[in-house]
Request: fold
Amino acid sequence: MCGIVGILSHEPVAQRLVDGLKRLEYRGYDSAGIAVINDNKIRRCRSQGKIVNLDARLAQEKIDGVIGIAHTRWATHGMPTEENAHPHMTEEVAIVHNGIIENYKVLRDDLIEKGFSFYSQTDSEVIAQLLTFFEKESTSHLEAIFKTLDKLEGAYALGIMFKADPTRLYGMRKGSPLAIGHGEKGEMFLGSDALALAGLAENLTYLEDGDLAVLTRDNIEIFDKDHKKAIRPSQRYTAGFEAISKAPYDHFMLKEIYEQPDVVRQTLNTYLSADKKSLSFPKLTFDPDSISKLTIVACGTSYYAGLVAKYWIEQIARISVDVDIASEFRYRQPPMPKEGVALFISQSGETADTMAAHEYAVSERQQTLGIINVPNSSLARAVHTPLMTYAGPEIGVASTKAFSTQLCVLAAFALHLAHERGLVSSEKLEQHCHDLASLPNALEQVLGLAASCKDIAEDLSKAQDILYIGRGTSYAIALEGALKLKEISYIHAEGCAAGELKHGPIALVDENVPVIVVAPSDALFEKLASNVQEAAARKGQVVFISDKKGQQAYHGDALARLTVPDTTVFTAPFIYTVPVQLLAYYTAVHKGTDVDQPRNLAKSVTVE
Ligand code: F6R
Reply:
């Protein structure tokens, strides 16, 4: 959510700042801008909308310098206009900011009383004005920054440069991530994530919460939250540019859907033994036998992965599971069991609500686990036991491959708990591991439904409301299908437990409403089929997703049928996810929406 790049060099930096922003555009694309220092002046170029607009503007304005900061914005305070685009600046200082300054109104009013003028509706501009105020009454820029930070409430990652000192770039973080890249030729970089720095620097230092870093071309000085000098390790990050190309696909989302067989294989390779007959699960910091309840907390798609896991863990490991939406969990302040265990799921590892929920769980003395895709992210570093997924960078804003890899870890976790608790025999475990290991092939097969999904999507794209229904783990997949569709096609969609239809949502059904049915032939199939008949009887346009057996058993009307490969009850969620992803993707393509960067959204939601 918002992206930051900063470069301190001895060569012109404008083009590399823009290139860095392009790699970060998935984090926000409401507006973008850069500022550089040149001829003893801060020069700035900003534009509304995507970075191509900034590129075009820069071609005309041609600003450049050897030090600069850049930002791509996801609007929180103030419309996505040029005035509200970052960098924000005064004559003396320019800043870029990720996060939210919660007390900005009070600070702003106070500065206005002191004679300062504001030019945007953002919370961020107050930081530039405060720095300007404190610069005058401080003996150093560092002192002015510390005084400013003391006033700020909320979350931030910041990049700052002062006109009076073009040899220093300042970066700091509280609640939002920030990394420093060590260049090889007397250069230093700031980036809101490793992707921003791909191709610029291979040696990265991640700042800890509360850190302030002072960058010169050949040195870094870091101060911790108590203003004491601190040393942070640096590590190599070698992801190349190829990781972020969507070729040969039209969209990152489609590429990522097609990557699922590979990333599922890679993730399973970590959590299954080499012969795929047993698990290879990291040592846990708690005894599975003694937990009475597991709490799972996440947001959005990651939350739905948690919901699938609730069914798995309760059924196989016989541990009761609470699944919570992170933004609700933290403020509800639920009592947590003594010596309890809490699991956090996050693709980015930076979601503000999930991070805050984790903090709450730690304060409640829980052992914490995290299922995370981005190495070195804030959550990966905060949990007691990180369980990484190996989806690779996910660029499409709608999460697809990350979800499938989260399911891999959750499936292995459920089996591990069950095995440790003596609830699955070694033979049964071997069977489950074998089923998991066959998933990459089954996923390749189910991707063969793309052409049929594209056809069905043409009808779906004309709908105003679409219902998704399922039972058991397929209820979670119905919810995920509805989320995927609404976020990229802007069609209203609702996922609902099939048994709940008649308690309200069926009132929506008429001949204009497609009803997508996630229907593996499992123990709940008959019940689900009856619910589908109820919808079909009200002229709902049924899209029936099932295996061969299920297709034969369903005799009702259907607008379309999608036949997926046979699965076990346990592995069904992996397979049924793919058609709902493809239906959402092609519906959005038919509607002509911006699939990879849907309106109003951003990847990595680092504000509450
Ligand atoms: C939906 C989607 C979001 C994220 C949610 C959590 O396609 O991508 O709902 O799943 O914002 O993000 P992470 O997993 O990064 O915590």
In short: The CA atoms of residues 159 and 171 lie 5 Å apart. The chain has 19 helices and 25 strands. Residues 299-302, 346-348, 351, 354, 398-399, 483, 487, 604-605 surround fructose -6-phosphate (CB under 6 Å). Residues 447-592 form a domain with the Rossmann fold fold (CATH 3.40.50.10490).
